[in-house]
Amino acid sequence: MSVVTYEVSASIARVTINRPERRNAMSYGVMQGLRDAMARARDDTDVRVVVLTGAGDRAFCAGADLGGGGIGDNAGAAAAHDGRGLLADLFREMWALGKPIIARVRGFALAGGFGLACACDFIIASDDAQFGTPEINVGLWPYMITVPLLRSMSPKKVLELMTTGRRVDAAEAERIGFVNRVVEVEQLDAAVDELATQLASKSPVIMRWGRDAFYRVLDMDADDALAYLQTMLTITTLTEDSAEGVAAFAEKRVPEWKGR
């Protein structure tokens, strides 16, 4: 049975970490499987949105697997170091995907699993979800997830969570700002589907360019960012989808996107 499953319906790719017996912990196989799934979604023009989740009701992802194919296996220091680079590659590929990613979180999202959720564009969580970076409690540090966490909440809050190792429930996660919406368990799938369907209804080319611009300007100074965004605005107005969107608004009808 695949440790990562992939299925597409109604322009939405659903990617599932399929290791519920290990709380969907990330082995090297899982990380490579997620990279493969992101590549499939990137290359499939019918896919407009990706939903990422974990199998079962206990965990989205409980972090790196400390055994059973994970970082605890004695593969040697060099091999372990290279293997951990799979997670960095996965984050880069998620941000460069060109399509929005929704994390559907039920249960635990801890350590690397917390970072994986924050590397998504949106997080919809059930009210029983828990987040945290417990690495400090076992003599480790959550190095690899620092960037997605810093992109999701204030630096002081990230440092607090990293240095204390405490867990955050869904209500606090929404208050801090890294979770977009918290719903009851019974409403989780409906809430995820609602957002995914809404995102899938937008122009794919404008969504890709706009999302790319959002992440690009995060690391720019203000003057460079404004110059880049001005150029992107001009380019966007030259697309067929931009013209169609304006025309549809004026004619009070639903736009028909061409993706160009």
Structure description:
- With 260 residues, the protein is of the alpha/beta class.
- Helix content is 46%, strand content 17%.
- The chain has helices at residues 28-43, 77-95, 112-119, 146-150, 155-164, 170-176, 188-200, 204-217, 222-237, 240-251, and strands at residues 4-9, 12-17, 49-54, 59-61, 101-105, 108-110, 122-126, 130-132, 167-169, 181-183.
- The strands form two sheets. The chain has a six-stranded mixed β-sheet, sandwiched between helices.
- α1 (28-43) links the parallel β2 (12-17) and β3.
Topology:
Layout: E1 4-9, E2 12-17, H1 28-43, E3 49-54, E4 59-61, H2 77-95, E5 101-105, E6 108-110, H3 112-119, E7 122-126, E8 130-132, H4 146-150, H5 155-164, E9 167-169, H6 170-176, E10 181-183, H7 188-200, H8 204-217, H9 222-237, H10 240-251
Parallel strand pairs: 2-3, 3-5, 4-6, 5-7, 6-8, 7-10
Antiparallel strand pairs: 1-2, 8-9
Give the N-to-C terminal Cα separation. 39 Å
The total domain count is 2
Strand percent estimate: 15-25%
CATH superfamily of the largest domain: 2-enoyl-CoA Hydratase, Chain A, domain 1
Question: Residue ranges: pLDDT <50 for 5 or more in a row?
Answer: none
Helical content class: 40-55%
CATH topology name of the largest domain: 2-enoyl-CoA Hydratase, Chain A, domain 1
Radius of gyration: 19 Å
- Could you say which structural class the secondary elements and strand pairing correspond to? alpha/beta
- Count of discrete alpha- or pi-helical segments spanning 4 or more residues: 10
Mean pLDDT: 94
Topology as a string of helices (H) and strands (E): EEHEEHEEHEEHHEHEHHHH
Number of strands: 10
Oligomer: single chain
Indicate the CATH class of the largest domain: Alpha Beta
Trace the largest sheet across and list its strands.
Answer: 1-2-3-5-7-10
